[in-house]
Structure formats: C-alpha cells, structure tokens
Amino acid sequence: MPELPEVEIHARNLRDWLSGRTIRSAEVLDARLGDDLAERLAVAVVGHSVEGVRRVAKYLFIDLEGGHTMVAHLRMTGRFVRDVYLPITLPKATRLAIVIHTGERVRFEDSRRFGRIWVVLTSEAMRLPELAHLGPDALLDPITPERLAEAAGRTRRPIKVLLMDQTLLGGLGNICVIELLFRAGIAPDTPSNALTERHLQALAQDIPVYLQWAIDAQSRRELIYLGEKGAENVFPIYRRAGEPCPRCSTPIRYGAVAGRGTYWCPECQKASG
Question: 97-114 pLDDT, tens per residue?
C-alpha cells in the first residue's frame, strides 16, 4: 500500500508532469472511482490549467485554476503514470485518463480498484470526511517528543498501533512504522505508556529523517510497489522474515500486532512491556 514516501514521489512526478499545463480531456473508465466524477471533471477540470500539486499525509491534491482541486487517495494499488507516446489501447488497470495540451497523457491505474478521486472546491478540500480528522503531516509538520510522549502516556495500545493512528500523525503506514521501530530498537507490541522518555524522544526525532530516507531510496528508479514484478525492496527488515538482521544477524521474525503483519528483530527490539 502506498504510504507517505510513495505518495510524496507521486506528488513530485505530478508536479513535473502537470503544473502549468492545461487539461484538454479527462475520461473516467471506472464509475467506482468517484461519485459523479465524470461530470465534475467536465465542469471543473477540463479546459483549466493546473496551478500546483500538493501532498497531505497519503492524499494528493491537484489544484486547478478556477478554485477547484482534484483529491486522490491511492489506497492499495493506485498509481499515476505518464504516457509520452499514447498507446491505442489503454492498459486494463486504467481508471482515469487525462490528456494535457502538449498531447501527453497522465493515467490513474489501480488493479484492485480501491483508489478514489474527488473534485471539490479548493477551500473545501480539507473538509472531506476522509480528511477531516487527519493529524499533522508526519513529514511537513513532524511530531515533537513532548506531543508523542503525551499521546503515548494516555494509552496502553501497542506503540505500532499508536503510530499508525492517522488522527495523531498523518501519513505513516505499516512499512514506515515497522522500519521506524526497528531503527529505534522498540518492539512493536510495546505498550505505548511503557516507553521511556529516551525512546520517545529518539522516535519522534527520527520520523522525518526516516521518511526523507525512504523517499530518496525509492526515487532512484521507477516506483514499483513491493509484491509487483520488478520491485526492489530497499527496506532493512520489511518482508525479510528469516533473513539475518542487518545489525546483529539474528533472524528477522514475522507475526501480527493488532491484526497487521509485522517484522522485527527479537534481539535488537527488546523494549516489550
């Protein structure tokens, strides 16, 4: 599932492909992509130029002249791709095809069809129900050690669950949290209120550092999601069950925390409460 680093890469790509360009046409190939999306695109998007592209947590915002914004959530398998040379037949996974005035095409592909796109007034975009309760962006507005300590002190939920709570911090997903907890030496099932001040301070300070690393590491080549053909696993422990820990050589373990698949090193991450 695309998380903050992957969505940030999409935002940068879309900024390069669309900013300053006029959208000539927009074709919806799957009605499940958004309610009345074809009609909204025809009125508020087609014929308008793109003023900019933003990212908020795991959401993409494509701002258009005229005061409207396309908001996209990639969900499990969504991605934006560019066609410089237009194929006669659109790939099967295409759900939306946008042609800009240069003749290039930007498509939204989504094999599992969970992704969603909305067209709303720019002033109303953050009031969408899906975004209304988002916490601060984990990269653009990093959580302070004090705020993390306050949130952790109020709950016995596993620290992995707390960090994935989008009302606390927007953008962190399963992969990000697995890797962050490994870097911090914290077992994923540790009750949040059992963590020491030292652990929480180190964790809070490392979140934006890790996110920037993950963006840079995945920007070196075409972004292909793990599990897809040709994908490169750049992560030290995610999807590496049974492989030696990169720090201590102990085999990485796999299990579940609150129903989510989790990887950890039993030697390096001993802070379980």
Answer: 999 999 999 999 999 999
